[in-house]
Amino acid sequence: MLSAKSLFQEILDNDESYRLFCSIAASGESQGGWENARIAALVPADERALAPKITRHGADEDKHGRIFNALMKKRGLEPVEVPPDTDYTMLLERHGIGLAHDKLKSDQPLTVQDIVTYLAHSRVTEQRASEQMDLLRKHFSDHPDIGRAVRMISADEDNHLAYCHEELLRFAYAGHGRAIQRALRECALAEIRVYRDVSLAVMAHMGRLLGWSRAKAAVLAAGIHAVYAYERAVGWRRMVTLKMPERRGALNGPATAAPEFA
After folding, report:
1. Mutual orientation of helices 177-210 and 214-233 as an angle, nearest 10°?
2. Per-residue pLDDT averaged across 188-198, rounded?
3. 3-class secondary structure, 223
4. Which own/partner pairs from 4-11 qualify as long-range (CB within 8 Å, at least 24 positions apart)?
5. DSSP string computed for 79-135
6. Taking the CB of residue 179, how many other CB atoms lie within 10 A of it?
7. Residue 148's closest CA among 259, 14, 22, 20?
8. Which pLDDT tens digit goes with each residue over 116-168?
9. What is the rounded CA–CA span in Å between residue 67 and residue 96?
């Protein structure tokens, strides 16, 4: 019977599929680390108090990239080049979601609206990351090889999501509510399309590596399309709501260190 646990267990048990999974994850996290570092450096003067939190966000993402690379190294594996059709962060940028890399590569300070755009983008993508890591934590938190990494990354993603809620509500109270809701809706609808396309691409690559039958591949593809249909109809709304998190100041202080993997 196909399930999220059995599917990931199959990927985990095969060196080539595991290497591809970790390479995709490491690349995306490292890209997120770079983006947050640049945003922190370009924060407008009126929002400089936010810079340490954005820096912490980026440091966490960098740490996650190092963790995925360490998991590969632990099994004697080297990263592989990430197929373009599985590059979630770059595909989001091509859809105009978040801050363009050309803007981040310049030395021009960002505007308050840019920061609102960044936070809206992060709120949506961190919702996805938090849910995915929660699923892995549910099934693999006690796994001898990846359990510790899954627990740490999952906790970080929950913190990132809480931070986005808190900061967006602060901006909403300051009069940016309509801009925030507009940005959240636009980002959520684009993200669910990109997530569908990336999921289909990842499953296609995994299927070739693992020798899945056409029937199995078709069932998985149908499942991905079903998730998209639900998210397109109503599921996207969970990504645009805002509520004050139970944990305030989730990104106050420095990032925790990445664990060592022997």
Report:
1. 170
2. 98
3. helix
4. 4/135, 4/139, 5/139, 5/140, 7/220, 8/136, 8/139, 8/140, 10/210, 11/206, 11/210
5. --PPPGGG-HHHHHHHTT-S--HHHHHS-SPPPHHHHHHHHHHHHHHHHHHHHHHHH
6. 16
7. 259
8. 999 999 999 999 999 999 999 999 999 998 999 999 999 999 999 999 999 99
9. 29
Q: What would the two tokens of residue 97 be? A: 């979601």
Q: Alpha carbon of 201 to those of 9, 75, 196, 262: distances in Å?
A: 19, 25, 9, 32
Neighbour-count burial for 107-137, b at 16+ CB within 10 Å, e otherwise = eeebeeebbbbbbbbbbbbbbbbbebbeebb
Burial class (CB in 10 A: 0-12, 13-18, 19+), 191: buried
Report the distance separating Cα 37 and Cα 54, nearest Å: 7
Over the stretch 200-222, which tens digit does the pLDDT of each residue have? 999 999 999 999 999 999 999 99
**Sign of the CA dihedral 100, 179, 161, 189?**
negative
Report pLDDT for 35. Answer: 96
From CA 70, how far away is CA 181, in angstroms rounded?
39
Measuring CA to CA, which residue among 148, 119, 101 is closest to residue 256?
148
Q: Tokens 């693999």 label which residue?
A: 140
Residue tagged 């300051």 (tokens): 174
Q: How many CB atoms lie within 10 A of CB 101?
A: 15
CA distance 185 to 180: 9
Q: Residue 24: name the closest of 73, 69, 56 by CA.
A: 69
